Amino acid sequence: MRTVAGSTDRIVVIGAGLAGLSAALHLAGRGREVTVVERLAGPGGRAGRRDVAGHLLDTGPTVLTMPGVVEDTFAAVGESMADRLRMVRLDPAYRAHFADGSVLDVRADPEAMAEEIRAFAGPGEAAGYRRLRQWLLRLYEAEFAHFIGTNFDSPLRLLGPQLARLTVLGGFGQWERAVRRFIRDERLRRVFTFQALYAGVAPRTALALYAVIAYMDTIGGVYFPYGGMRALPDALAAAAADAGVTFRYGATVASLERRGRRVAAVHTEDGDRIGCDAVVLSCELPVAYRLLGCSPYRVVPLQLAPSAVVLHLSAPTVWEGTLHHNLLFGQAWESVFDDLVLDGRLMRDPSLLLTRPTATDRSLAPPGRQLLSLLAPVPNLADRPDDWDRAGPAYARRMLDTAAGRLGFAPSTVETLHLDTPADWERLGLTAGTPFSLSHTLRQTGPFRPANVPRAVENAVLAGCGTVPGVGIPTALMSGRLAADRITGVPRGRRVLIADPAGRLTPASGPR
After folding, report:
1. CA gap 232, 224 in Å, rounded
2. Paired residues of 51 in beta bridges
3. In what order do the strands lie in the sheet with 262-268?
4. Chain segment 151-193, per-residue pLDDT in tens
5. Does residue 452 contact residue 151 with C-beta atoms inside 8 Å?
6. What are the distances in angstroms from CA 504 to CA 22, 87, 136, 497, 507?
7. DSSP-derived pairing of the beta strands 273-275 and 278-281
8. Angle at 262 (CA atoms; ends 444, 428), nearest 5 degrees
């Protein structure tokens, strides 16, 4: 594995998002002097926050899986997640609402989920679910430690028994077709393929190896930290600070001071110079490449994932039949991906994600109020350059009316707290207004994704969802650890870790 040569005593991490925080913790735990430079006023990056009239809004990701990866990140500095973060497993993980009026609770426990499916679609589909669960588990075990959690210098490093195992499992086939082998009910297949939206591709064209995302939430489980999702970056930053990491918030990086092919210092717009032996750039890829003065060589241009419109709401009562996470599926399904991914247009028959965090933590809203967010995937600004500042409010009303029609509540009883559109994401510096970065096509998967070691600079490493392993909270945290490995090498005695179905990290067999 390629690592940074020479001294690596002083490290500057650019960006205090989840990947940057993870890199800082792993580097500090390995004895490095770490300074984190963040242009915002606090930690979190994409895991943003906004407080409105006593409501504590999470403006970034709302689905947290793989708590073992979070635990591993705290353990890098000898900390315990339990001492820093109070987290609960959501059961059910989701409630799926279908256009025909049927409802399915999605549970991680195998017996409970099999019984839900038996009552929903019959014993044959319940048996198919058990076979699907075993396939997802084998797929996950083949991928996690040896592909997702490993640095690659060349695609040739993929070759070996683990790649053969992944191939035999059908990992390079199509996701939707793989799930169809086990489940015939079209509604059920949605529950195990909708996660393709996170990867920015359609289930019928996505690689089956990305079904591992379905493993993470439908088998590994979905979790929520008390205090909201913001509690995660806050806790990571606090642990890093206690481990000696220096944070400089409200500081925008202006340039990197170069000496030959090495970065010698980071300069901020305020005129500060921070000397370093190596730098981790966990900012947006275009920003990182601009600072480095280079760009990745790509035969095919990078493809961005769709964006989203998120409507944050306050309601006086609980919407009947809703849980913490709710999937509101439209009648059409294939057309959702045709619209978003192929045609670059708004969904004609929207499928929505409704999150009600006050179902778990009442402190996130004032007494007597419920906090909700409604998310609709939309094309990014490169695929569809809409004027969202003008069109956003009208589209938000369509979203609310759609949810009201499916759940049976009066839109007039709901108060809008805040609206995020692709225009807002773009103002935050996110490329083409998408918070989901690069899509996970074959050309942007594993060693074919933009590498975390830019060849033009000897002591710079990338981290974040634009590089390996990809998009999502656990993968962002792992990206920070992979970046730290590039600087220090893999710590001696570090075990290959894989999370069990409950999300706990345990040693896995095979070479690192």
Report:
1. 9
2. 56
3. 253-259, 262-268, 273-275
4. 988 776 677 788 899 999 999 999 999 999 999 999 999 999 9
5. yes
6. 18, 14, 17, 9, 10
7. unpaired
8. 50
Record the tokens describing residue 11, joined without a space. 């490290």
Structure tokens that stand for 180 in this block? 């169809």
Which of 468, 452, 476, 505 is CA-nearest to residue 147?
A: 468
In the DSSP assignment, the letter for residue 249 is E
Estimate to the nearest angstrom the gap between the alpha carbon of 1 and the chain centroid: 25
| Cβ–Cβ < 8 Å for 508, 498 | yes
Residues with Cβ < 8 Å from 446, sequence gap 6 or more? 147, 152, 155, 158, 468, 469
* Cβ neighbours of 242 (radius 10 Å): 12
3-state class (DSSP) for residue 21: helix
Residue 42 CB burial class (10 angstroms; 0-12, 13-18, ≥19): middle
Distances (CA, A) of 122 to 98, 180, 463, 503: 17, 16, 45, 29
Which amino acid is residue 178, in one-letter code? A
Side chain identity at residue 153, one-letter code: D
The torsion region of residue 405 among left (phi > 0), alpha (psi -120 to 50) and beta comes to: alpha
Would strands 278-281 and 10-14 be described as parallel, antiparallel, or unpaired?
parallel
| 92-126 pLDDT per residue, tens | 999 999 999 999 999 999 999 999 999 999 999 99
Asked if residue 43 has a cis previous peptide bond (ω within 30° of 0), the answer is: no
Q: How many Å apart are CA 98 and CA 108, to the nearest integer?
A: 20
Which residue type sits at 253? V
Report CA torsion sign: 148, 149, 155, 156: negative
Closest alpha carbon to 171 in 212, 216, 213, 220: 212
Q: Which residue has the tokens 């195998």?
A: 110
